[in-house]
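Regression report. Comparing outputs from two consecutive submissions.

Submission 1:
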Amino acid sequence: MTTEPSPALDPATPPAHPRLSLALGMFVAVVAFGLLVFGLSFRAGLDQASARGASDLALASDRLTTGLQRYRELAVFLSDHPTVWARALSPDQSADVARATTNVLQNLADKTGAHSLMLVARDGTVLAAAGEQTLPKGAQAAFNRAMSGALGVAHFVDTDQQRRYVFAAPVFDPGGPARAAVIVNVNIGLLEWGWPTEPSAIYFTDDYGVVFVSNRSELVLRGGLAGPMPVTARRQISGHDLWMHEAGPYIPSPALHITRPLPVIGLEAELLMDLKPVIALSSLQAGMAAALALVFATFWFFARERRRTLAEANTRLEARVATRTQALEIANRDLTREVTERLEAEARLKRVQADLVQAGKLSALGEMSAGISHELNQPLMAIRSFAENAQAFLERDNAAKAAENLGRISELARRMGRIIKNLRAFARQESETITNVELTAVVEAALEMTMGKVARAGVTLDWTPGEPVWVRGGEVRLQQVVMNLLSNAVDAMSDSPDKRIEIRIFAGQEGGTPTRLTVADTGPGIAEPDKIFDPFYTTKEVGASEGMGLGLSISYGLIQSFGGRIRGANRAKDGQSPKGAISGAIFTIELIPARIDRTQETSE
């Protein structure tokens, strides 16, 4: 009888600690690989975030610079104004001249939104003013520079803790020095009020590090030489400045810090972009890479161990082939089953990935179909109406009228194709050609498309076509906007006793006031005016055929693509309406007037 050596005493069996060391080394390698992937992904994310942040900061800087530039030009314009110039050179003139100067300043202050306008003599005497009647102390530096013959600029905080930005333009004596200065005082808070909401914290600091302008109210007037942020940690990664701070719950931390000097207005623009999405994405990518590496490492480790075990078994099988054959076959079957299971797992993983890709495609297709169905519904209804009319005319043997209706159907089909093209261009941010469009004809075409719905709803239409009014835009896209406003107005007045739609066109001037188109109804008004242009926001009942909330959002984008704007508001019962004191909603479209050659217009 032969005895087999104990496995614990078999010299061919290696001790357990090399295996543990190998497993520990593999784990360390997987962790290091995950950290490497995290670092590379984080740096790539920082580059993308920096590009987006720089673009956002440039837009905010241009917005502030442009807003202040308007008041700078106002100061220069007033310094050359004949009435202001006469008052500055002859301060002892009659009270009529003083009143005329004050009226000029007050008129321009009302139109431009300036906090105050004043004409100040060289000795500091206020010769005329609109708003404040005395020169603020913070504006003295700008006034002194204007008296030296240059354009003075200053910013300060007044006694009411209001931030002011001042421009001082000198008024020169012909052939001599400056005799007075025009002071334009701007309330920075009014400029901030009209800014769009930004996800990042944007602020503008002066030479002392004090935040003078910001889209975060908690940062305003904070800081000093040490800066407005209580920075707890600061790090440079790939040339990017990363901050950790305790500035408040609404200021992103950790954040990417980006700066942009603005020497024109004497401020420095700064932006703090939230890095949590970048960190989360990098962590996800690193985790996935580490998990994949761990799977391969584990597979390799177990395969290596199995090969070693098989080698040991083969060495012992030379003497015990008969007794070990069955065990070896079992081990081979287990190995085959494990390999099969792993292959099946890989196949399932590929199927899941393919399903995820297909789900993303279906989601995008669903959004596109929703927008197209909403925008094409009204032309389809018109086609249906014309088709029914054509059938009726054919039954009456009125072929001419039937042909006319069929022609209109053909035209509507072509318009639907153009609408689809416009929707595709809007969705892909494509640029469409902007031409001169006759606004009255656009309204007439939109009314023709919606007149059936207006008549069925019992709505009275208050509209009188006038002289042609030409604007810059796209004919089909403008028709879309007007049709959407008319349809919304009809739907809003479903429960109103007095159903009336008023359409007005107010012609503008080229290079001056914009052309305005207003559509007003007598419905209940707008419950949330600030949200009416948000996508998928609707006040219609759930399940309504046209209640997806995309129409006004698309209209907003179309009008902006023409360089115009659209806004909605409620009509107060003030009695100013031509039909009496009524309530309801009013939508106003402002468009750029077009330059039209009158000879060509006559020939056309």
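Submission 2:
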Amino acid sequence: MPSVLQLTLILLGSGVAGVLIFRYFGLPPILGYLSIGILIGPNALAVANDSATVKYLAEFGVVFLMFSIGLEFNLHKLKAMRTIVFGLGGSQVIMTMLLAVPASFLISSFYPLSWHASIALGGALAMSSTAIVTKLLADRAELEMEHGRNVIGILLFQDLAVVFLLILLPSLGKNPHDLFEALSLTAIKLTIALVLIFFIGQTLMSRWFKLVARLRSQELFMLNLLLIVLGMSALTAYFGLSLALGAFLAGMLISETPYRHQVEDDIKPFRDVLLGLFFISIGMLLDLQVLVVQWHLVLLLLIAPLALKFIVITVLARLYGSSPGVAIRTGLCLAQAGEFGFVLLTQIDGLDLIDPLLSQAVLAAMLLSMLGAPFLIQFSERLAMRFASTEWLLQSLAITRVAAQSMRNDQHVLICGFGRSGQSLARLLDQEKIPYLALDLDPDRIAEAVSAGDRVVYGDASRENYLVAAGLVRAKAVVITFADTIASLKVLHQVEKLRPGMTVLVRTTDDADLGKLQAAGATEVIPELIEGSLMLASHVLLIMGVPMRKVVRTITAAREARYSLLRGYFRGSTDEDFSENEAWRLHTVTLMPGALSIGKTLAELHFELDGITVQAVRRKLMGADYTKLDLKPDLHLQANDILVLSGNSEALEIAEAKLI
């Protein structure tokens, strides 16, 4: 048996390898941890046999996961999504648990189950994977879509339901005749714990964190945080409740203090590492022989819960007003098992509610369903289109509404995303009488904005048909206001395919993905952090007594150096110095076959003598879309190249004559 140090090295090394491989293929790390656990466990390669030590460490992973969920528990968020969370989410968990009782007859020929064991197992199978689903939907830019909001609402209730189930399961392990007494005693204990925590602990927690924060010691802050998380877990364990419940309550307490975000950042490394150990330990529990010996039972436990959850969620989503296509997507996204299902299954094992061999078959089926989740989500759109007869009609109606709004526009700005940045831009465009049309996926936001007179419609800017309907071919510019780089890249790909060389401005949080966005076709990328730093610098310079004219000149020079589209615009100290024909413009020129400039280099064209700046050259490379080339003086132009030029109107006319 390896020593503790050797075991730690094995777990860290295998964890790194698993996450690297799965991240390389764009899959969630949780699948890497589970696969590695199966591989190194005592039932496979047997590299790590000390499963007791791993499980001991992994239990803290669950503690910190529940603490993080407690931090996310926000009454305002729940109130805003109360129909989805408590209506749709609550119905899903309750219906799945209740239907587990008659469904248990399917496996009665293998392992007879009591009704309370069936409910306990139904609670474990009712869970879906928050880690996998949110990661995959975020990668597909679908979190803000209707089915994405349904999914998040249901997952949120499932997270809350785990707290209740962790309390309920020990009571189900009692004699059925003593169940009422056990539940009553548990309820009394929970009430006492909540009273102590929220009526006494809330005040003490705020004051204590304030005192610790005043000392300005990061080390002390972290030690205090660990003490509170583990101390609260120990307190609930003392009352006969679970460690995870105490961690959840600690998170709820801290979420109401001003230190929530700092706590969340500090605890994340502990949570992710220990949670990875938890998933590895789950993988180590699986006996691969069960897949061979009891393959028929594993197959039944894989297909039946997937089908049951899919049907339940799809039907409930329809009852709560979703279209057939949205309901199908919601059901497919949540049909798989989840990480909290493993937590509950471990507790069920500890209470001896089900046979250990059945537990192994359930564990195998849950792991297989999670491994198959990426494929279900990947093909959810195609399946929804195939089996929802009205989905094409609904999408056609939505696209028609977009087209009806865009028909009156020409040379307009197409805004992708109507959040705070999109709305601010729209107001400024309105002041200048510049037409615009915005696409957004939040129906509540759209309803309020339309009632206020804004020109915004429901539409997914990452889809080709919505961009066409929004008048991309007639638009002057596209502005992508998403903070999510992946969503921006999807829109850029579609814009580049439909209208190569289009002026596209992209908002981003920082410049970490600058190269990636520019390579995808962004004409300019506007990082908020850089703009914030420039505004901060301007105020500091003014406070320090630097003249306003010099401050404007300094900030202007900094922007010129950073943003290529602004070069050539700020040539003096004030805008009033420019005459009308010297106003900066951006212009694209496509080199048709036979153009005069084909075969010439950029240096040979001497654009700088005409006051022209070449912003970009795009070329359709073999097997790829239009790609932005490096602007080298010896770059030879080819037929169908697209040049993006900036300069005043007269200079652009001269440059275009040289090119064509």
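Expected: both submissions complete independently.
Actual: both completed, but the second showed a warning that disappeared on reload.
Relevant detail on submission 2: Residues 58-274+307-387 form a domain with the Na+/H+ antiporter like fold fold (CATH 1.20.1530).
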